[in-house]
Design goal:
Radius of gyration of chain A: 20 Å
Main location (chain A): membrane
Radius of gyration of chain B: 28 Å
Largest sheet of chain B: 5 strands, mixed
Largest interface: B-C, 102 and 102 residues
Strand order of the largest sheet of chain B: 3-2-1-5-8
CATH superfamily of the largest domain in chain B: Cupredoxins -  blue copper proteins
Structural class of chain A: mainly alpha
Oligomer: heterotrimer
Chains: A mainly alpha (about 200), B alpha+beta (about 325), C mainly alpha (about 625)
Number of strands of chain A: 0
Number of strands of chain B: 12
Subcellular location (chain A): Cell membrane
Helix content of chain A: over 70%
Protein name (chain A): Cytochrome (Ubi)quinol oxidase subunit III
Number of helices of chain A: 7
Shape of chain A: elongated
Keywords (chain A): Cell membrane, Membrane, Transmembrane, Transmembrane helix
CATH superfamily of chain A: Cytochrome c oxidase, subunit III, four-helix bundle
Number of domains of chain B: 2
Membrane topology (chain A): Multi-pass membrane protein
Strand content of chain A: under 5%
Structural class of chain B: alpha+beta
CATH topology of chain A: Four Helix Bundle (Hemerythrin (Met), subunit A)
Distance between the termini of chain A: 57 Å
Number of helices of chain B: 9
């Protein structure tokens, strides 16, 4: 650690793109997010085409509870903010600060997941399952894929925290942390679309 | 040497062309021999686009052959070609001219696309509900209350509105002589408007891979003059004879009731086979074999050998007499 | 499943016997073996060779499938392969040729050439490069194992739902399709991403975007198309997997689903895919034609522009595969006009090639022969392409042999001819030996003649009313003779391919050694370094001073490139076994899902995640090599 503080004066402002590998990693990750956008766009398209095919099951109006979803949205949006704060700490070479904010991010993400699981269980109880209708399939495919992304993000960030604690904030760990934060923001943006196109639109009809 | 080879291949291609010109399609199946107004419009567009494209092809090939012959490296030659960057003038020419050609192509295309989709006035059209099943076709005439299969009869000169339904997988309804195809999509109703300009029997095909028997999912279109069509219509509307005239027919009817009725009379909506009420009027068995007793036996004994993948079960457990009686009964259905 | 375990155990036993038993030395020996080196390599040149070999292997398998189909169609009423078997052949032929032959061969050439053309020592992500290859390979393997384990997929390479659902395709065939393609698709996506970053970030000093050789440009646009098209396939396959394995209802219309959604998703991927496989062929043509005409590429800027435009328009035309679905005249017209528009940039390319040759000094070496054969063939395919874009006419062509003829003219006449040109052109760079010109010419002429003989008549089959994907046809409707000719033509392509294989074997044994500038006419950077290049490619990163970087130096009278850095030790990435391990994990998981063995699937996924963790915690810094000084000659 001492080693790092000594050399920090020579280090560039953005640690994540300080090395060539770092630059590649960040650019590559942006492009990967482009592919992810297409993936979600296809899931959204399918959902919008099938959302009224609920057969005998409950419709979107009957099903969705905006209060719960609004709470989940707030949690996830806040986690995006804390993730930004973690990155600021990272570029300040403040390991402790960074880890603290990352842990808060994780807690918020976990809380979001718990809410989502609770929501799904509730829906299944109402007779809205993956297999009940085309609406069910497309709903769980879209929201579930997002949930799977959140889960993966949480596991990923945990392993990165472990690496950061072991190795400190270096030009090798920084790009990894930075792209994980990009990923986290992306999940957040997708959720904003889910909130509007699935839940709000579903309430409107 | 190289030049020689280019001519050689040119010769070969033209040889193939001549060979092909020798064979022409069948007048009941060929896109190039239209018998209906839709097919005629489509062929016009095919020829128009082919003509334009041939002009393009000839220009390209002329330049191509000239360049290859003129600028090939000759023996002992070691020339340094001028390293040209390009030519804005030329590049504009071969951007603008194709655009003009494409506009000349796009205008009739859009025009015809809308023309073909336009529904004719309802009172003048014959409506036929087509349903594609694995691997057979059902035709219903809602105006006349007729249901038949594999063979559809239409009056010459009248617009026919085919409403195409699907129950299992995708199929595609295609009568090349009368016009282009439309897909059979389960869960939606597609329409296609066709007519026949002259009387005749035209062949229909399934054009979308639908399973093992896809190649044999054929049907026939009988275009008839109005009088003949009306005659056919009246025959079809008459109920099939209910009383058996001979004892073997009566026995055949019993066998039919015991073995076939489950699928062939619409008792179970999930398992459906062609309606056999007017079976004896059809010219084919299963849409592929010529209709005679021998072929009917082959079909009944081993349907899979005739049409792989068909849902029709083997009727190989009947003895000879029973089979003959069944066939007699079926032959009386007209 | 038990068979598999028995085979695995047996293989382990045999390995133990042949290597002298299981001990510490065993691992040492494995690690230092050449096989291990190839399995774990992250060197783009070696990965290129792996892609080439795997691609050719699958090309031959796909070719055999095609030959068998044509044999069945030689005469009406043939009973060689009927019904389901024929459908399996046509499905596997299409799937194999597109995903397992065309794609890897393109990646082979991209791997072998792109880093050299931009003056880079490697790709941006050597590890991902290896991962991409192994995922493709194991995905392809999984797909082809279907022949042994319960039957190949039989719903067409488009796998339209309805037919592809459990109810109508009950065997495991379509599951193999879904999981095999999913795994190899992820590999392709990774490969595309890698090349995008490589071309954006790894260019040598002075190599601006408008100095990139055209092959690199097309590789760039193709990679972009891969990145944005493959996720649509991923989603479609995922949904089909859910429908088949977990009872969801995306495509089951009785449960509110829609098969049209599959068609849309498939073609949103599928149409860009057409350009993914054709654009690199355009790039190869541009490089080959310019080289063997001894002339700068005519209209470079408009070529680049046309490439980008084709890539862009490629995403807006997918509905032209669905004109007969019944989407209405407005939709059909819009997509028809968009499709026709693609003819303009394509035409620009053809004329630019012609005028590149105009005034040049054309040498008919084998790569150039393929390029010259490509032009008229591809133009024919383009012509029918425009004709197919017109919805009213398409109502007649759609799903008939006319379409089969059209896409073989663009995919064989375009992509395959292009790939052969590229293989002949860069083989000396990849292997350090010249392929035999004599055998190459035999290969070209037999293949070209066979190709036209097979596919030209098929236009008429379609117009005479023969639908595609049929295992038989009627007698006496004018189809017999044309089908006969078409089948006879296949012999030409088979013989041509055999010549090619003989050429490869012959060359590997006693081929002529290749110079750095193997054809003596090199214009781009790859010809400035030895054939084959050292593992670090460039001892000193070159300084690029214009388009056709090497040619610029040649014109200035220099023998080699001007270096942009002093000679020094070069950092190389370490080989890694994690890519192949992870791919095996995916393979096991895929197989588990197919046999509905959830424990096996879980084991596979555990392997995948374990490999991911291994990678995440892996801080291997690679190693350094001292390059030999090109001025002083080799020391090796």
């Amino acid at each position: 650690m001492a080693n790092q503080t000594n050399s920090s004066t020579e280090m560039p402002n953005h640690l994540e793109t300080a090395t060539f590998d770092g630059k590649n990693k960040v650019l590559g990750f942006w492009l990967f997010l482009g592919a992810e956008t297409v993936l979600f766009a296809c899931l959204f398209g399918t959902y919008l085409a099938l959302r009224n095919q609920s057969l005998e099951g409950p419709t979107t109006q009957e099903l969705f509870d905006l209060k719960l979803v609004a709470l989940a949205t707030a949690l996830l949006l806040t986690s995006s903010l804390t993730s930004v704060l973690a990155m600021i700490k990272m570029n300040e070479r403040n390991l402790k600060g960074m880890v603290t904010w990352l842990v808060i991010t994780l807690v918020l993400g976990l809380a979001f997941l718990v809410l989502e699981i609770y929501e799904f269980l509730h829906y299944i109880h109402e007779g809205h399952t993956f297999m009940s209708s085309a609406f069910g399939s497309s709903f769980y495919a879209l929201v579930g894929t997002h949930g799977a992304h959140v889960t993966f993000g949480i596991i990923w960030i945990i392993t990165l925290i472990a690496q950061a604690i072991r190795r400190g904030i270096t030009t090798e760990t920084a790009p990894k942390l930075f792209v994980s934060s990009l990923y986290w923001h992306f999940i957040d943006v997708v959720w904003v679309f889910i909130f509007t196109l699935v839940y709000l639109l579903g309430k409107v009809g | 040497m190289e030049r020689l080879r280019i001519w050689r291949i040119g010769l070969l291609i033209s040889l193939v062309m001549i060979l092909l010109a020798g064979c022409s399609g069948d007048p009941t199946l060929s896109v190039l021999d239209p018998k209906g107004s839709a097919a005629k419009i489509q062929l016009n567009l095919i020829y128009w686009s082919l003509g334009l494209m041939t002009v393009v092809f000839v220009i390209v090939i002329t330049i191509f052959v000239y360049v290859l012959v003129r600028y090939r490296k000759r023996k002992g030659q070691d020339r340094m070609p001028e390293q040209v960057h390009g030519s804005t003038k030329l590049e504009i020419i071969w951007t603008v001219i194709p655009i003009a050609a494409l506009i000349a192509l796009a205008i009739p295309t859009v025009q015809y696309t809308f023309d073909l989709a336009e529904a004719p006035p309802a009172e003048e059209t014959v409506i036929i509900d087509v349903t594609g099943y694995q691997f057979w076709w059902e035709f219903k005439y809602p105006q006349y209350g007729i249901t038949t299969a594999q063979e559809v009869h239409i009056p010459v000169g009248k617009k026919i509105l085919f409403r195409v339904h699907g129950k299992d997988v995708l199929h595609s309804f295609w009568v090349p002589s009368l016009g282009g195809k439309v897909d059979v999509v389960p869960g939606r109703v597609n329409t296609v408007i066709l007519d026949a300009k002259e009387a005749g029997v035209y062949q229909g095909k399934c054009a979308e891979l639908c399973g093992s028997g896809h190649a044999l999912m054929d049907f026939k279109v009988f275009a008839k003059n109005q009088a003949d069509f009306d005659k056919w219509k009246d025959q079809m509307k008459q109920p099939a004879p209910t009383v058996a005239t001979t004892s073997s027919e009566a026995n055949g009817e019993k066998i039919f009731q015991q073995n076939c009725i489950g699928c062939h009379a619409g008792v179970n909506p999930n398992i459906q086979g062609p309606n056999l009420n007017k079976f004896a009027t059809r010219t084919t068995i299963a849409g592929v074999l010529p209709h005679n007793d021998e072929n009917l036996k082959i079909w009944l004994r081993n349907p899979q050998s005739v049409k792989p993948g068909t849902l029709m079960p083997k009727i190989d457990y009947l003895n000879k007499d029973e089979l003959n009686d069944l066939i007699k009964y079926l032959d009386s259905r007209k | 499943m038990p068979t598999l375990i028995v085979l695995l155990v047996l293989a382990l036993f045999l390995a133990a016997i042949f290597t002298g038993g299981y001990n510490k030395q065993f691992f040492e020996r494995v690690r230092s073996s050449r096989t291990w080196d190839w399995l774990t390599t992250v060197d783009h040149k070696k990965i290129g060779i792996l892609y080439l070999m795997a691609g050719l292997f699958f090309f031959i398998i796909g070719g055999i499938e095609a030959t068998l189909m044509r044999l069945q169609l030689f005469a009406p009423g043939n009973e060689l392969f009927v019904g389901r078997t024929f459908n399996e052949l046509l499905t596997m032929h299409g799937t194999t040729m597109i995903f397992l032959a065309a794609m890897p061969l393109i990646f082979a050439i991209m791997n072998a050439v792109v880093p050299l053309q931009i003056g880079a020592r490697d790709v941006a992500f050597p590890f991902l490069n290896s991962l991409g290859f192994w995922l493709f390979f194991f995905g392809g393997l999984l797909l082809n194992l279907s022949w042994i384990f319960g039957g190949a997929p039989d719903a067409g390479w488009t796998s339209y739902t309805g037919l592809a659902l459990n109810e109508y395709s009950p065997g495991p065939g379509v599951d193999f399709y879904v999981l095999g393609l999913q795994i190899s698709g992820i590999g392709t996506l990774i490969g595309g991403l890698n090349f995008l970053v490589t071309i954006i970030n790894m260019r040598a000093p002075g190599m601006t975007f408008l100095r990139l050789p055209l092959f690199t440009w097309t590789a760039f646009v193709t990679s972009g198309l891969i990145l944005f098209a493959f996720p649509a396939l991923t989603v479609a396959l995922l949904m089909l997997m859910f429908d088949r394995l977990f009872g969801s209802n995306f495509f089951d219309y009785t449960m509110g689903g829609s098969t049209v959604i599959w068609e849309h998703l498939f073609w949103i991927f599928g149409h860009p895919e057409v350009y993914i496989v054709i654009l690199p062929a355009f790039g190869i043509m541009s490089d080959v034609i310019s080289t063997f005409s001894k002339k700068r590429l005519f209209g470079y800027n408009s070529m680049v522009f046309a490439t980008v435009l084709i890539g862009f328009l490629g995403f807006m035309v997918w509905v032209h595969h669905m004109f007969t679905v019944g989407l209405g005249p407005i939709t059909n017209s819009v997509f028809a006009v968009a499709t026709m528009a693609i003819a303009v940039p394509t035409g620009i390319k053809v004329f630019n090639w012609l005028f590149t040759m105009w005034g040049g000094e054309i040498q008919f070496k084998t790569p150039m022969l393929w390029a010259v054969g490509f032009i008229p063939t591809f133009v024919l395919g383009g012509m029918t392409g425009v004709m197919l874009a017109l919805p009213p006419a398409d109502y007649q062509y759609q799903d008939s042999y006319f379409v089969v003829a059209h896409f073989h003219y663009v995919l064989v006449g375009g992509t395959v001819f292009g790939l052969f040109a590229g293989i002949y052109y860069w083989w000396p760079k990849m292997f350090g030996q010249m392929l035999s010109e004599r055998l190459g010419k035999w290969h070209f002429w037999t293949f070209l003649i066979g190709f036209h003989l097979t596919f030209f008549p098929q236009h008429f089959l379609g117009l005479f009313g023969m639908p595609r994907r049929v295992f038989t046809y009627q007698t006496n409707v004018g189809l017999e003779r044309i089908n006969e000719i078409s089948t006879i033509g296949v012999a030409g392509m088979v013989i041509g391919t055999i010549f090619f294989l003989i050429n490869i074997v012959y060359t590997l044994r006693k081929g002529k050694k290749a110079e750095a500038d193997a054809w003596g006419l090199g214009r781009t950077l790859e010809w400035s370094i030895p054939s084959p290049p050292p593992e670090y490619n460039f001892a000193q990163t070159p300084l690029v001073r214009g388009f056709d970087a090497l040619w610029v130096e040649k014109e200035a009278g220099n023998k080699s490139m001007t270096p942009s850095e002093p000679l020094g030790s070069i950092h190389m990435p370490s080989p890694s076994y994690i890519p192949i391990l992870m791919s095996i994990g995916f393979f096991i998981a895929g197989f588990g899902f197919i046999v509905r063995g959830i424990p096996a699937a879980a084991i596979g996924l555990v392997v995948v995640f374990a490999a991911l963790f291994l990678r995440s915690f892996d801080y291997d810094h690679g190693y350094h090599v001292e390059p030999e000084d090109p001025e002083k000659g080799g020391k090796e």
